[in-house]
């Protein structure tokens, strides 16, 4: 993988930090100064001031000529162009993924003889022999056993179909994990924890690169088709962010400024959710509520535009063939009643408890994978989990089909034309009513049979998802969580419906459920349960409700959805504040300062700063008495990201701060291009050269790379304030002074370690800078 891909960075302007247009050893800033190392945090303030300088320069130049004016207009429009491109590409990729998943999922069961690239549904659309009752059966579509042996029914055919189903599943998952392992290790997982960390200002090179984009798209299709308990929604956010990063590299405004690049990535995340769920507004709210760290108003409008273009592109591809953006479109005809809020809130409680159980069990399993031999055999693990999933899933018709189809069936209302087992009610022979409003009826044997199978499917999904999420293949969590909730919701819905039918004289049903009326819609309970479980795992609220009603078109059911989402969040928060993504960020030790974390301890900056009492003194540079050799030795002997510059070692009066990478590049550049710079040359950061004897070699001026306005706090600043400053200004480090004298330094890593220590966690778990 090319380390230069992904989130790379930038050159400063000549006027950075008020250094002015000084005649240094080069008139142009040398390449790569101001860029960041891999696994380091960006300095948001520096990026912002750099962009302001760039903007000021373009504005002043635009008055000089027509050509410069056109260039400035193009620069202003580049943001919208990038959004258009992101929307088009992510919409197209999502459409292709949907179509490919559909075909490959059906390939495990059989093949279309008239055209092998058709899925089961498409194959029977084109057939003339299909009847409405047997719309799944047509001569063109044959199961594998029928194709090979000529027998469609019987034990032999069942065993052969079973065997081939497992075989295809194993083949797909083996291909997926092998491709990830060989070509793009970053393409595994859901991607949202890493995207959150990157958007907070961390650099993971190659995470959003071209290879990752290509492999993630291909392996996502394979992983979802293998029938594992995972979804494609989370990974689609990663895919959209890869598209965003790809198009950023076309415009220097974004490729050379890490802060600006992150604004584009925030909007790309919105486009990702927009195509994953066909929910453009939900996507914008998801980006705002769940993934973004810095979300100015301009980014809100651009996210809206990117989500719109992405949804429009997906709609024109029409992957589901129902002229809708979504698979689960439902239309319920009955209103909901106040008494139903009780089961809705109970579903919310279930969602919160399932969320807590899932997060704890999944994190424990992932930690075990990290710390034991298990982590060394990712391919074996994927094969084993796929094998177990396929073997257990095939006998149960609800787990055999793709999870999206299962949710779609659970959301469905039983109309007169439904052939599903869930709709096997005993009809009243005297019934003469319009087709869409069927009264509550007693459940037939098919419904009771379906309830058993759904109960088994629920247990299976709950257990298997814990082991599936976090394996070395692309795996989303939205669809499995929704499936757990939808199964539980449908079971509760049928129970309430049958109670209302058999006991309509009970006081709770008396007021709103007359005999012969259609009172309870089990599909609505499935929808509410799905929202509750998804909320319990991710802790989303606003965006979740909006995604759910955009996803299903059930606009009048906002109140039940809100009740369930809020309840599930409260219940889950009672057991622990972190959602699944924050827990994975903690597990991986990424330096992520969560905006939602409260810091309430009464510590001061002096307790956290380094050097501590028994540490060696702070590594500093002086303004005009350090030689090139001293600087090179300091860089070689330490691994700090930067060094404070002081007047002299005796006075310790602070002048500024210089980044390690800039120093290294500046000295390397000077040695190549400036005559007379040797190891004994004096490095100076002042305006004028120091008075040196004539015999001394030529001094080296490095004032341009000096940040003259580093952020400082006094030693008695409360840590509560320091944490707030780091969080809101996106600092990398801040210097601690007393009466202008330098005492120490606090980095983002120090802040995170201190917070972990205060919460009785292991401070060494924070691994990066």
Automatic annotation (TrEMBL):
InterPro entries in alphabetical order: CBS_dom (IPR000644), CBS_dom_sf (IPR046342), Cl-channel_core (IPR014743), Cl_channel-4 (IPR002246), ClC (IPR001807)
Any one Pfam family match given in the protein's UniProt record, by short name: CBS
Chief localization: membrane
Highest taxon of source: Eukaryota
Keywords for the protein's UniProt record, in alphabetical order: Antiport, ATP-binding, CBS domain, Chloride, Endosome, Ion transport, Membrane, Nucleotide-binding, Repeat, Transmembrane, Transmembrane helix, Transport
TM stretches of this protein: 77-101, 162-184, 204-224, 236-252, 264-288, 341-365, 377-394, 450-470, 477-496, 524-549
Gene3D superfamilies: 3.90.1280.20, Clc chloride channel
Segments forming domain CBS: 609-673, 706-764
Membrane topology: Multi-pass membrane protein
Listed GO MF terms: antiporter activity; ATP binding; voltage-gated chloride channel activity
GO cellular component: early endosome; endosome membrane; Golgi apparatus; plasma membrane; synaptic vesicle
Cell compartment(s), UniProt: Endosome membrane; Membrane
PANTHER family in alphabetical order: CHLORIDE CHANNEL PROTEIN (PTHR45711), H(+)_CL(-) EXCHANGE TRANSPORTER 4 (PTHR45711:SF2)
Family as reported in the entry's similarity comment: Belongs to the chloride channel (TC 2.A.49) family.
Name under which the protein is recorded: Chloride channel protein
Gene name of the encoded protein: LOC115383778
